[in-house]
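Dear support,

Our group has been running a series of protein-ligand predictions, and this particular one with uridine-5'-diphosphate is the one our PI (initials K.S.) wants archived with full inputs and outputs. We had some confusion internally about which version of the output was final, so please treat the block below as the authoritative record. The input we submitted was:
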Amino acid sequence: MARLREVQVGAQSPQALEAVIGSARTAHLHDQARQVWEALGAREFLHVNSTAAGGGVAEMLANLLAQSRGLGIDTRWLVVGGDPAFFEVTKRLHNHLYGHPGDGGPLGDAQRETYEQTLAPNADELVSLVRPGDVVALHDPQPAGTASRLREAGAKLVWRCHIGTDAPNEWTEIGWRFLRPYLEHCDAFVFSRPNFIPDWLPQERCFIIQPSLDPLSAKNQPLSDDVVHDILVRAGLLSDAPTGAGTMFVRRDGTRGRVDRPAELIDSGPPPPAGVPIVLQVSRWDRMKDMRGVLTAFAEHVAPDSDAHLMLVGPSVHGVSDDPEGAADLAACAEAWTSLPDKVRRQTHLVCLPLADVDENAAVVNALQRYAMVVLQKSIAEGFGLTVAEAMWKGRPVVATDVGGIGDQVIDGESGLLLADASDLAACGAATRRLIGDPPYAQRLGEAARQRVFEHFLPDRHLDQWGDLLRALLVGQT
Ligand code: UDP
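Confirmed final output from the archive:
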């Protein structure tokens, strides 16, 4: 049965962020927070999505809420529940908005009925939490169907779309046709890039806000080389003895966490030995991330002449509640892996990270991104691609497809290398080999990458833009 649930997030101290962004940027943030606080008064700001863990939206919401709360703005995060039939429909919708057919199934009356019937009890619960004048941000297609009920309850509604394509086609048309009746109840629309906005939406009510990463979260906080090493050894991702530095990280509430749970290596024998170059892609198991294409590109164009190892890392496929295709994508990768030559099989690893403790999961991703020599993101489509910003923040050189928001993050040849065509596996291999073979060049790209994130993709810019939008909504200009 579909049930709404609330995700609890602790507050992040703004003092800690000030140590990263400096006093001028912090002062601006406090000023914005004070104005939002005054405009909100007794009203609440709620976010609604469909998973608490295992993807960019969950990652970003955890960060945004923690920082908003640290600044004295109370926000709540609610997750809609649904059964597999509902998530089959919403995943299809998700793939359509990326311009792909997904599982190829229809988005007709029967799917609309499944969608609406699942959201009806979620909407009942949401409406009981919302008072007139509250602002509700609905994230992505999954909760969009609650909009009319929330509107009737007097909420101001923002639809935040994290996905999209620069090249709309017949699939995006079908996806928009399905969603359009729900979106008509929303007051404002937020996209990651202008090209993602469909032309039938009122353009004056559409806003561009790019995501950000939290430099203090378990995912991105600094870790010493020895802690990185020990986390990977402890998680079973590096064949070596621990240094003794331990596997501790700091949670948002200031308490310490420790990496203890092993990762699951799918069919891939021992983990990489210490000292070999690691090429990494971290993603959900999703065909749009093309983990299988990365495997083939590495197997054919990197592994034969190199001792580098590839690690394809994703969340445990049982943990991401709104993603029914994860297990099939992982199985397809595992099957492709099985048919590789022996030497290449030893150099390639499919890894699932447990989600039982999201901070522990994040600390392992952090360690992997810091340890990697090259980070890939060979997506076929991408809304923003937080994994790219995460690697860039750690000073890693990235090789990523120039799709969606990745092109807003990486300047080709300056802060990473962009691939024009996701299907050009030879180009992906060549860019990877180039970075492995030229460490000074890789380091220059990595340093510029970190600076680019510092300037554009940290939370103060992100919160400031949400603050502007909230104030516009609350004073009735939107
Ligand atoms: N991620 C994670 N654990 C995993 C795999 C992915 O925490 O095992 C995170 C990753 O670090 C990033 C997010 O999931 O923060 C993926 O966001 P992105 O925008 O790259 O893609 P999305 O999943 O939203 O399509």
